[in-house]
Amino acid sequence: MAVVPFNVLNDLSYSIFNATGIPEDDARILADHLTTSNLVGHDSHGVWFMPHYVPALQKNYKRWEDHIVTREQPSFVLIDGDGANGIVSVTKALDLAVEKARSCTFGMVGLKNVSHIGRLGDYPPRMAEQGMIGLVWMNGGGEFLSPFGSADRRLRPEPIAFGVPRKNGPPLMLDITLSVVAGGKIEQKIERDEPIPDGWLIDQDGHYVNEGKRYHDEPENIGVLPLGGMQFGHKGHGLAMMIEMIVGPMALAGCTGGAGGGGIMIMAINIESFMDLDAYKEEIEKHVAYVGSARPLPGFDKIYAPGEIEEANRHKNLDEGIYIPEPTWKTIAETAADLGIGMPKV
Protein backbone atom coordinates (compact mmCIF):
# COMPACT_ATOMS: atom_id res chain seq x y z
CA MET A 1 0.00 0.00 0.00
CA ALA A 2 0.98 3.67 -0.27
CA VAL A 3 0.10 6.61 1.94
CA VAL A 4 0.39 9.68 -0.27
CA PRO A 5 0.18 13.36 0.73
CA PHE A 6 -2.67 15.08 -1.06
CA ASN A 7 -0.50 17.61 -2.90
CA VAL A 8 1.78 14.81 -4.15
CA LEU A 9 -1.18 12.78 -5.40
CA ASN A 10 -2.72 15.84 -7.02
CA ASP A 11 0.51 16.83 -8.78
CA LEU A 12 1.03 13.27 -10.04
CA SER A 13 -2.55 13.08 -11.32
CA TYR A 14 -2.22 16.40 -13.13
CA SER A 15 1.07 15.31 -14.72
CA ILE A 16 -0.48 12.07 -15.97
CA PHE A 17 -3.58 13.75 -17.40
CA ASN A 18 -1.55 16.58 -18.92
CA ALA A 19 0.77 14.06 -20.59
CA THR A 20 -2.18 12.62 -22.54
CA GLY A 21 -2.25 15.83 -24.58
CA ILE A 22 -5.64 17.15 -23.45
CA PRO A 23 -6.00 20.90 -22.70
CA GLU A 24 -4.21 21.95 -19.53
CA ASP A 25 -7.32 23.31 -17.82
CA ASP A 26 -9.15 20.04 -18.51
CA ALA A 27 -6.22 18.08 -17.03
CA ARG A 28 -6.42 20.26 -13.91
CA ILE A 29 -10.19 19.71 -13.57
CA LEU A 30 -9.75 15.93 -13.81
CA ALA A 31 -6.85 15.81 -11.37
CA ASP A 32 -8.65 17.98 -8.82
CA HIS A 33 -11.86 15.97 -9.13
CA LEU A 34 -10.32 12.53 -8.63
CA THR A 35 -7.87 13.44 -5.89
CA THR A 36 -10.45 15.45 -3.97
CA SER A 37 -12.72 12.40 -4.04
CA ASN A 38 -9.99 10.46 -2.24
CA LEU A 39 -9.37 13.39 0.08
CA VAL A 40 -12.97 13.49 1.33
CA GLY A 41 -13.15 9.72 1.76
CA HIS A 42 -14.80 8.58 -1.48
CA ASP A 43 -12.08 6.31 -2.85
CA SER A 44 -14.75 4.70 -5.02
CA HIS A 45 -14.63 7.80 -7.24
CA GLY A 46 -10.96 8.64 -6.83
CA VAL A 47 -7.64 7.98 -8.54
CA TRP A 48 -8.31 4.30 -9.13
CA PHE A 49 -10.25 5.57 -12.16
CA MET A 50 -7.18 7.32 -13.58
CA PRO A 51 -5.68 4.36 -15.49
CA HIS A 52 -9.12 3.63 -16.94
CA TYR A 53 -9.56 7.21 -18.14
CA VAL A 54 -6.16 7.65 -19.81
CA PRO A 55 -6.70 5.53 -22.96
CA ALA A 56 -9.91 7.39 -23.81
CA LEU A 57 -8.21 10.75 -23.26
CA GLN A 58 -5.46 9.79 -25.69
CA LYS A 59 -7.89 8.71 -28.40
CA ASN A 60 -9.86 11.39 -30.26
CA TYR A 61 -10.43 13.65 -27.23
CA LYS A 62 -13.59 15.74 -27.55
CA ARG A 63 -13.56 19.19 -25.95
CA TRP A 64 -16.55 20.51 -24.00
CA GLU A 65 -16.36 23.74 -25.99
CA ASP A 66 -17.48 21.82 -29.10
CA HIS A 67 -20.78 20.70 -27.54
CA ILE A 68 -24.05 20.98 -29.44
CA VAL A 69 -26.97 23.03 -28.10
CA THR A 70 -30.14 21.24 -29.15
CA ARG A 71 -32.72 23.47 -27.46
CA GLU A 72 -32.52 26.64 -25.38
CA GLN A 73 -34.86 29.01 -23.56
CA PRO A 74 -34.09 31.69 -20.96
CA SER A 75 -34.22 29.27 -18.02
CA PHE A 76 -32.82 26.09 -19.55
CA VAL A 77 -30.58 24.60 -22.22
CA LEU A 78 -30.37 21.06 -23.60
CA ILE A 79 -26.89 19.99 -24.67
CA ASP A 80 -25.42 17.06 -26.57
CA GLY A 81 -21.86 16.72 -25.32
CA ASP A 82 -20.82 14.87 -28.51
CA GLY A 83 -18.66 12.46 -26.51
CA ALA A 84 -16.88 15.06 -24.37
CA ASN A 85 -15.31 14.16 -21.04
CA GLY A 86 -18.05 13.99 -18.42
CA ILE A 87 -16.20 15.48 -15.45
CA VAL A 88 -15.02 18.46 -17.49
CA SER A 89 -18.46 18.86 -19.06
CA VAL A 90 -20.46 18.98 -15.82
CA THR A 91 -17.88 21.21 -14.12
CA LYS A 92 -18.29 23.76 -16.90
CA ALA A 93 -22.01 23.22 -17.56
CA LEU A 94 -23.02 24.10 -14.01
CA ASP A 95 -21.87 27.68 -14.67
CA LEU A 96 -24.51 27.84 -17.41
CA ALA A 97 -27.16 26.78 -14.90
CA VAL A 98 -26.00 29.45 -12.42
CA GLU A 99 -26.00 32.12 -15.13
CA LYS A 100 -29.57 31.31 -16.11
CA ALA A 101 -30.71 31.20 -12.48
CA ARG A 102 -29.39 34.72 -11.91
CA SER A 103 -31.90 36.06 -14.43
CA CYS A 104 -34.70 33.46 -14.23
CA THR A 105 -34.55 32.17 -10.61
CA PHE A 106 -34.27 28.59 -11.88
CA GLY A 107 -31.50 27.60 -14.26
CA MET A 108 -31.37 24.11 -15.75
CA VAL A 109 -29.02 22.24 -18.05
CA GLY A 110 -29.97 18.90 -19.58
CA LEU A 111 -26.90 17.04 -20.77
CA LYS A 112 -26.29 13.77 -22.61
CA ASN A 113 -23.58 11.97 -24.56
CA VAL A 114 -20.62 12.55 -22.25
CA SER A 115 -18.29 10.09 -20.54
CA HIS A 116 -18.26 9.13 -16.85
CA ILE A 117 -18.99 12.20 -14.69
CA GLY A 118 -17.30 10.97 -11.51
CA ARG A 119 -18.53 11.98 -8.06
CA LEU A 120 -21.77 13.95 -8.21
CA GLY A 121 -21.09 15.48 -4.79
CA ASP A 122 -18.34 17.61 -6.31
CA TYR A 123 -20.77 19.71 -8.31
CA PRO A 124 -23.66 21.11 -6.19
CA PRO A 125 -21.29 22.80 -3.69
CA ARG A 126 -19.78 24.73 -6.58
CA MET A 127 -23.21 26.22 -7.23
CA ALA A 128 -23.84 26.73 -3.50
CA GLU A 129 -20.64 28.76 -3.27
CA GLN A 130 -22.27 31.16 -5.75
CA GLY A 131 -25.37 31.66 -3.60
CA MET A 132 -27.45 28.93 -5.21
CA ILE A 133 -29.14 25.72 -4.20
CA GLY A 134 -27.50 23.18 -6.48
CA LEU A 135 -28.87 19.86 -7.72
CA VAL A 136 -27.41 17.24 -10.04
CA TRP A 137 -29.35 14.09 -10.98
CA MET A 138 -28.36 11.33 -13.39
CA ASN A 139 -29.84 8.21 -14.92
CA GLY A 140 -26.36 6.82 -15.28
CA GLY A 141 -23.84 4.31 -14.03
CA GLY A 142 -23.79 0.60 -14.77
CA GLU A 143 -27.09 -1.24 -15.07
CA PHE A 144 -26.65 -3.29 -11.88
CA LEU A 145 -29.48 -2.20 -9.57
CA SER A 146 -32.22 -4.76 -8.96
CA PRO A 147 -35.82 -3.61 -8.46
CA PHE A 148 -37.37 -4.42 -5.09
CA GLY A 149 -38.30 -8.08 -4.97
CA SER A 150 -35.87 -9.26 -7.66
CA ALA A 151 -32.18 -10.03 -8.23
CA ASP A 152 -32.35 -9.15 -11.94
CA ARG A 153 -30.43 -6.05 -12.97
CA ARG A 154 -32.86 -3.55 -14.44
CA LEU A 155 -31.88 -0.08 -13.17
CA ARG A 156 -28.83 2.11 -12.82
CA PRO A 157 -27.74 3.46 -9.41
CA GLU A 158 -29.47 6.76 -10.32
CA PRO A 159 -27.15 9.07 -8.31
CA ILE A 160 -28.50 12.36 -6.98
CA ALA A 161 -26.69 15.20 -5.22
CA PHE A 162 -27.73 18.44 -3.53
CA GLY A 163 -25.81 21.40 -2.15
CA VAL A 164 -26.80 24.43 -0.07
CA PRO A 165 -24.72 27.33 1.24
CA ARG A 166 -24.16 27.87 4.95
CA LYS A 167 -22.73 30.65 7.09
CA ASN A 168 -20.22 28.84 9.28
CA GLY A 169 -18.38 26.57 6.90
CA PRO A 170 -18.32 25.15 3.38
CA PRO A 171 -21.60 24.25 1.67
CA LEU A 172 -23.61 21.32 2.99
CA MET A 173 -23.89 18.48 0.51
CA LEU A 174 -25.78 15.22 0.09
CA ASP A 175 -24.55 12.75 -2.54
CA ILE A 176 -26.25 9.36 -2.67
CA THR A 177 -27.15 6.57 -5.04
CA LEU A 178 -30.54 4.92 -4.99
CA SER A 179 -28.80 1.57 -4.71
CA VAL A 180 -27.73 0.57 -1.20
CA VAL A 181 -24.14 1.20 -2.27
CA ALA A 182 -22.35 2.80 -5.21
CA GLY A 183 -20.85 0.42 -7.74
CA GLY A 184 -17.42 1.91 -7.11
CA LYS A 185 -17.58 0.89 -3.46
CA ILE A 186 -18.17 -2.70 -4.53
CA GLU A 187 -15.14 -2.40 -6.79
CA GLN A 188 -13.08 -1.05 -3.88
CA LYS A 189 -13.97 -4.11 -1.79
CA ILE A 190 -12.85 -6.31 -4.66
CA GLU A 191 -9.67 -4.22 -5.13
CA ARG A 192 -8.82 -4.64 -1.45
CA ASP A 193 -9.74 -8.35 -1.48
CA GLU A 194 -12.33 -7.75 1.24
CA PRO A 195 -15.68 -9.58 1.59
CA ILE A 196 -18.81 -7.82 0.42
CA PRO A 197 -20.91 -6.90 3.49
CA ASP A 198 -24.32 -8.44 3.99
CA GLY A 199 -27.09 -6.37 2.48
CA TRP A 200 -25.22 -5.17 -0.63
CA LEU A 201 -25.65 -8.00 -3.14
CA ILE A 202 -28.53 -10.46 -3.57
CA ASP A 203 -28.85 -13.70 -5.56
CA GLN A 204 -31.83 -15.36 -7.22
CA ASP A 205 -32.63 -17.29 -4.04
CA GLY A 206 -32.84 -14.09 -2.00
CA HIS A 207 -29.54 -14.73 -0.21
CA TYR A 208 -26.87 -12.14 0.43
CA VAL A 209 -23.66 -12.57 -1.59
CA ASN A 210 -20.29 -11.86 0.01
CA GLU A 211 -17.90 -12.93 -2.77
CA GLY A 212 -16.99 -10.00 -4.99
CA LYS A 213 -15.89 -12.32 -7.77
CA ARG A 214 -19.48 -13.50 -8.23
CA TYR A 215 -20.60 -9.91 -8.81
CA HIS A 216 -18.49 -9.85 -11.98
CA ASP A 217 -18.87 -13.48 -13.01
CA GLU A 218 -22.65 -13.85 -12.59
CA PRO A 219 -24.36 -10.67 -13.80
CA GLU A 220 -27.48 -12.68 -14.65
CA ASN A 221 -27.78 -13.99 -11.08
CA ILE A 222 -26.39 -11.28 -8.79
CA GLY A 223 -27.87 -7.80 -8.35
CA VAL A 224 -27.34 -4.81 -6.06
CA LEU A 225 -30.20 -4.08 -3.68
CA PRO A 226 -32.08 -0.79 -3.89
CA LEU A 227 -31.71 1.82 -1.15
CA GLY A 228 -33.60 0.47 1.85
CA GLY A 229 -32.53 -3.12 1.29
CA MET A 230 -34.76 -6.13 1.75
CA GLN A 231 -37.08 -4.34 4.17
CA PHE A 232 -37.59 -0.88 2.71
CA GLY A 233 -36.11 -1.24 -0.77
CA HIS A 234 -39.41 -0.25 -2.37
CA LYS A 235 -38.43 3.34 -1.52
CA GLY A 236 -35.10 3.23 -3.33
CA HIS A 237 -36.69 1.31 -6.19
CA GLY A 238 -39.45 3.88 -6.58
CA LEU A 239 -37.08 6.84 -6.39
CA ALA A 240 -34.77 5.21 -8.92
CA MET A 241 -37.60 4.79 -11.41
CA MET A 242 -38.69 8.40 -10.87
CA ILE A 243 -35.19 9.68 -11.58
CA GLU A 244 -35.16 7.57 -14.74
CA MET A 245 -38.50 8.97 -15.85
CA ILE A 246 -37.51 12.59 -15.15
CA VAL A 247 -33.88 12.72 -16.24
CA GLY A 248 -33.80 10.25 -19.13
CA PRO A 249 -36.53 11.76 -21.34
CA MET A 250 -35.99 15.40 -20.27
CA ALA A 251 -32.27 15.25 -21.09
CA LEU A 252 -33.21 13.50 -24.37
CA ALA A 253 -31.05 10.55 -23.27
CA GLY A 254 -33.89 8.06 -22.90
CA CYS A 255 -34.69 5.67 -20.07
CA THR A 256 -32.66 2.61 -19.15
CA GLY A 257 -33.69 -0.39 -21.19
CA GLY A 258 -32.38 -0.66 -24.71
CA ALA A 259 -30.04 2.17 -25.60
CA GLY A 260 -31.32 4.74 -23.07
CA GLY A 261 -29.44 6.20 -20.13
CA GLY A 262 -26.59 8.57 -19.37
CA GLY A 263 -28.72 11.68 -19.00
CA ILE A 264 -27.79 14.44 -16.55
CA MET A 265 -29.91 17.25 -15.15
CA ILE A 266 -28.19 20.21 -13.49
CA MET A 267 -30.31 22.78 -11.63
CA ALA A 268 -29.38 26.00 -9.88
CA ILE A 269 -31.97 27.83 -7.74
CA ASN A 270 -31.26 31.47 -6.99
CA ILE A 271 -31.93 31.91 -3.27
CA GLU A 272 -31.98 35.70 -3.53
CA SER A 273 -35.10 35.50 -5.70
CA PHE A 274 -36.89 34.21 -2.58
CA MET A 275 -35.12 35.84 0.35
CA ASP A 276 -31.98 37.56 1.56
CA LEU A 277 -29.01 35.18 1.16
CA ASP A 278 -27.56 35.96 4.59
CA ALA A 279 -30.94 35.33 6.21
CA TYR A 280 -31.08 31.96 4.42
CA LYS A 281 -27.66 31.02 5.74
CA GLU A 282 -28.68 32.01 9.26
CA GLU A 283 -31.71 29.74 8.99
CA ILE A 284 -29.52 26.87 7.84
CA GLU A 285 -27.15 27.30 10.80
CA LYS A 286 -30.05 27.22 13.25
CA HIS A 287 -31.37 24.03 11.68
CA VAL A 288 -27.96 22.34 11.69
CA ALA A 289 -27.42 23.29 15.33
CA TYR A 290 -30.84 21.99 16.36
CA VAL A 291 -30.50 18.64 14.62
CA GLY A 292 -26.89 18.34 15.79
CA SER A 293 -27.98 18.84 19.41
CA ALA A 294 -29.63 15.40 19.42
CA ARG A 295 -27.96 13.01 21.88
CA PRO A 296 -25.81 10.40 20.08
CA LEU A 297 -26.56 6.74 20.68
CA PRO A 298 -23.82 4.44 21.99
CA GLY A 299 -21.22 3.95 19.27
CA PHE A 300 -21.83 7.35 17.68
CA ASP A 301 -19.57 10.34 18.32
CA LYS A 302 -21.87 13.10 17.06
CA ILE A 303 -24.78 13.88 14.76
CA TYR A 304 -23.53 15.04 11.38
CA ALA A 305 -25.21 17.28 8.85
CA PRO A 306 -24.90 16.20 5.19
CA GLY A 307 -21.37 16.82 3.99
CA GLU A 308 -19.77 17.25 7.41
CA ILE A 309 -18.26 13.75 7.37
CA GLU A 310 -16.58 14.59 4.08
CA GLU A 311 -15.13 17.75 5.60
CA ALA A 312 -13.85 15.79 8.60
CA ASN A 313 -12.21 13.34 6.19
CA ARG A 314 -10.69 16.24 4.27
CA HIS A 315 -8.91 17.59 7.34
CA LYS A 316 -7.83 14.13 8.51
CA ASN A 317 -6.42 13.11 5.14
CA LEU A 318 -4.65 16.44 4.66
CA ASP A 319 -2.84 15.75 7.92
CA GLU A 320 -2.22 12.01 7.55
CA GLY A 321 -2.09 11.40 3.78
CA ILE A 322 -4.32 9.32 1.54
CA TYR A 323 -4.25 5.52 1.62
CA ILE A 324 -3.99 4.00 -1.85
CA PRO A 325 -4.32 0.19 -2.14
CA GLU A 326 -1.27 -1.53 -3.59
CA PRO A 327 -3.03 -2.79 -6.76
CA THR A 328 -4.25 0.75 -7.50
CA TRP A 329 -0.83 2.32 -6.86
CA LYS A 330 0.83 -0.30 -9.06
CA THR A 331 -1.57 0.36 -11.94
CA ILE A 332 -1.08 4.12 -11.61
CA ALA A 333 2.70 3.56 -11.71
CA GLU A 334 2.36 1.52 -14.90
CA THR A 335 0.24 4.25 -16.48
CA ALA A 336 2.75 6.91 -15.44
CA ALA A 337 5.64 4.89 -16.90
CA ASP A 338 3.80 4.54 -20.22
CA LEU A 339 3.51 8.33 -20.35
CA GLY A 340 7.09 9.01 -19.25
CA ILE A 341 6.06 10.36 -15.86
CA GLY A 342 8.21 9.58 -12.82
CA MET A 343 6.52 8.29 -9.68
CA PRO A 344 7.01 10.14 -6.39
CA LYS A 345 8.71 8.44 -3.46
CA VAL A 346 6.19 7.83 -0.68
Structure at a glance:
With 346 residues, this protein is an alpha+beta fold.
Structure notes:
The protein is α+β, with helices and mostly antiparallel strands and 346 residues long. The chain has two domains: 1-61 and 315-346, Hypothetical Oxidoreductase Yiak, Chain: A, domain 1 (Orthogonal Bundle); 67-180 and 225-279, Ribosomal Protein S8, Chain: A, domain 1, CATH 3.30.1370.60. 41% of the residues lie in helices and 18% in strands. The strands form three sheets. The chain has a seven-stranded mixed beta sheet with strand order 2-3-4-11-5-6-7. A three-stranded antiparallel beta sheet has the order 9-8-10. The longest helix is centred in the C-terminal third of the chain and has 22 residues, at 229-250. It is globular. The model has no long low-confidence stretch (mean pLDDT 96).
